[in-house]
Amino acid sequence: MNRTYSIMKNKAPLLYFLFAILLLSGCSGTNKIPKDELLYTGAKIKIEGNEPSKKERKALKTELELLVRPKPNYSFLGFRPKLFFYNLAGQPKKEKGLRYWLRTKVGEPPVLYSKVDLEYNKSVLQNHSENNGYFNTKSTADSTRSGKKAKVSYTVTPNKRYFIREVKFPQDSSAIASLVRKTERRSLLKTGEPYSLEVIKTERERIDARLKEKGFYYFNADYLLVQVDSTVADHKVDLIVKLKTDSPELSKLQYKINNVVVYPNYSINSDDDSTSSDSIVKYKDFTIIDSENLFKPSIFDRTLYFKKGDYYNRTNHNLSLNRLVNLGTFKFVKNQFKVADTIGNYLDAYYYLTPLPKKSIRVEVLAKTNSANYTGTELNLNWSNRNVFKGAEQLTISAFGGVEVQVSGQNNGFNVYRVGTEASLIWPRIIAPFKFETSSGFVPKTKATLGYEFQNRTKLYSLQTFKGSFGYLWKENERKEHLLNLTEITYASPQNVTPLYQEQIDANPSLEKVIEKQLIFGPTYSYTFTNTMQKRKKHTFYYKGSIDLAGNVAGLVSGANIKSGDTVKVFSVPFSQFIKIENEFRHYLKLTEDSQIASRVIVGAGFAYGNSNEMPFIKQFFNGGTNSIRAFRARSIGPGSFDGSTTANTFLPDQSGDLKLEFNTEYRAKIYGLVKGALFLDAGNIWLLKEDLDKPGAKFSKDFMSEIAVGVGAGLRFDFSFLVLRTDLAFPIRKPYLPDGNRWVLDKVSFGNSTWRNENLVFNLAIGYPF
Question: Are 441 and 319 in contact (CB under 8 A)?
Answer without folding.
Answer: yes
